[in-house]
Design brief:
12 helices; single chain; Undecaprenyl-diphosphatase; mainly alpha
Length: about 270
């Protein structure tokens, strides 16, 4: 792996960590950045695997709460209910992700114009929802009703279209079902753990024949950068959205998507 490849991998890892947990589509940003930088990974495995760095960041930051939940689950009904709600929300992504994996990776991931358009559309949706979301009735992400968790899980599946944003879809869904802005972001964090870990494991299995030593070097660099930058973003995000909402991210999506459309039309 030469120095230029190392720098690109580090940059893409930084992009992943900065965008994974905010509703702007980390996959969309990664694929568009890779397209314009001329970066190619076998089976798009790099883009999926470095997300595990962001998952590790969440696990590190929420280790105390997760330990409390799992250690009390044998004798605490609320802990068991929370674990069940996250698992139920995760299930739709398992079935749809496995069934549509090849189409997603070979068609949707290879269509930069679609990604750019979805960034723009998602930006407008985020701006509208930030204004019209009902008054919150759910302030604790660990106490969402099971039916609400399942609905958020189905909405998360929209993010299999790159550019939609996994966190964006889950946050919008939770907000429209009466979640507070902070709780919507936190439930999205919790749901990301099994979802992204599952995507990593399945993608690694599907692409086991195309990985090589050089690819592992790129992945290691991107993984480390994604971990560090994700820790910083998660620490900042909850306080920001509690005070200011999600409009900033809507405008960001529109600007990036519009710039990407312009670049694709002029540069190809």
């Amino acid at each position: 792996m030469d120095s230029s490849t190392t720098l690109v991998a580090a940059f893409l890892g930084l992009v992943e960590g900065l965008t994974e947990f905010i509703p702007v589509s980390s996959t969309g940003h990664l694929l568009l950045a890779g397209h314009f930088l001329g970066f190619e990974s076998a089976g798009k495995t790099f883009e999926v695997v470095i997300q595990l760095g962001a998952v590790l960041a969440i696990l590190t930051l929420y280790a105390g709460r997760l330990w409390s939940v799992f250690s009390t689950a044998p004798h605490d009904a609320q802990s068991r209910r929370f674990i069940l709600s996250v698992l139920i929300a995760f299930l739709p992504a398992v079935f749809i992700g496995v069934l549509a994996h090849d189409f997603i990776k070979t068609v949707l991931f290879e269509t930069p114009m679609l990604i750019a358009i979805m960034l723009i559309l998602g930006g407008f949706i985020l701006l509208v929802v930030d204004r019209i979301a009902p008054e919150p009735v759910h302030d604790d992400a660990m106490r969402f009703p099971i039916s609400m968790a399942l609905a958020v899980g189905f909405i998360q599946c929209l993010a299999m279209i790159p550019g939609v944003s996994r966190s964006g879809a889950t946050i919008v869904g939770a907000l429209m079902m009466g979640s507070s802005k902070r709780a919507a972001a936190e439930f999205s964090f919790f749901l990301s753990m099994p979802t992204m870990a599952g995507a990593f494991a399945y993608d690694l299995y599907k692409n086991r024949d195309v990985l090589d030593a050089s690819a592992m070097g790129e992945i290691a660099v991107g993984f480390a950068m994604a971990f560090v930058s994700a820790v910083l973003v998660v620490r900042w995000l909850l306080g920001y959205v509690s005070k200011h909402g999600y409009a900033l991210f809507g405008w960001w999506r529109i600007i990036v998507g519009t710039a990407a459309v312009a670049g694709l039309l002029t540069l190809g």
